[in-house]
Design a protein that fits this description.
By secondary structure, the protein is an alpha+beta fold. The protein contains four helices and four strands; from the N terminus they run βαββαβαα. The chain has helices spanning 22-34, 52-57, 78-88, 91-103, and strands at residues 10-16, 38-41, 44-47, 67-73.
Length: 104
């Protein structure tokens, strides 16, 4: 297994999709997850590789007042990057599962 490199920043998709467009929001989240993005918090997805072009190509235009933007997020420190990625990629839960599996 190889781990992605960070390069000092995380690729982001920031979005706001109204509740009336829940299906579109769910589709955005599903496709982004398949492309390697994970949700840092509602409306903010992070990933190690820029796959925003592929994501936006697979979605219809988000009707107003909804929107989405691709960009980069540069954490202030490695510790901040670790906290963000641990939260978004649910690493604590994954490590706990590995410990349970190992002790079984």
């Amino acid at each position: 297994m190889s781990f992605p490199t960070m390069g000092g920043h995380l690729h982001t998709i920031v979005y706001s999709v109204p509740e009336a467009e829940r299906g579109l929001r769910d589709r955005l989240q599903y496709i982004s997850r398949s492309l390697g993005f994970r949700q840092l918090r509602p409306g903010i997805l992070i990933g190690f590789a820029d796959r925003s072009t592929q994501l936006l190509a697979r979605l219809p235009e988000i009707p107003g007042p909804g929107w989405s933007e691709a960009g980069v997020l540069t954490p202030d420190s490695i510790a901040a990057a670790r906290r963000m990625t641990a939260r978004a990629f649910e690493l604590d839960a994954a490590f706990a599962q590995l410990l349970l599996w190992r002790s079984a």
